[in-house]
């Protein structure tokens, strides 16, 4: 079996960027992607210079088309189910859902993160009228009647203050969780309505929010807003490969993609389990790929 230089797992901005840089360095690599990256629900991605407003599907299709220019890059639209490391981390066998097995010297984990919502109904509106990042979607929601939904006080205060930059017509909902008097005063001085009643339902059509029903019978008309999800890694490859994590679950690295495990690298949101823009994720993918290439060159020179 041929041994590849590197296998990249995850075809979001980080994995695509890493694959491009590796391909341009004449490295023989494979990119695996199962199409579950969280941007798939996004209508348009913003803030990436020269690509502002691009549809994530178009972004990905363009990136994959660019990879075709590099004959040493192979792309597999498959789910990786297992990564088996040989002793001393000199070889890794990657198994996919179709039974494919490939071997590589190095692994880049770029599997990203997923959102978790305490209110499942949010998913019906997420990406169309409810968002998590005001820097990404605040401009399109400017001056609209918006809602901010968050359950922890630090999240409700931070997110509401941020969203206020784009629209002052705000209602803050804590979904049944208390907000301190100090926190309430901070928001009320800007005429922001605070509701601690539990949310009963979100009402709208085709992903576009119209109103929010509370358990006390009250109904609030809103056309969209921002939410504070929690985030998690969709798989445990980093843990299974023995990568060291800190007390917050962040994968420890040298800040350029190298983990505590030899020949195991990480890129993009996977490292911190926190969201990042496509520009930042792509930059991290490039930075990690440079580390992989540098290590290969130095080891073989």
Automatic annotation (TrEMBL):
Leader peptide range in chain numbering: none
Molecular functions (GO terms): oxidoreductase activity
InterPro entries named in the record: FAD/NAD-bd_sf (IPR036188), FAD/NAD-binding_dom (IPR023753), Ferredoxin-NADP_redctase_2 (IPR050097)
A Pfam family: Pyr_redox_2
Cofactor(s) in the UniProt record: FAD
Ranges of residues in domain FAD/NAD(P)-binding: 5-149, 179-281
Alphabetic keyword roster: Flavoprotein, Oxidoreductase
Subunit structure: Homodimer.
Name used for this protein in its record: NAD(P)/FAD-dependent oxidoreductase
PANTHER family noted in UniProt: THIOREDOXIN REDUCTASE 1-RELATED-RELATED
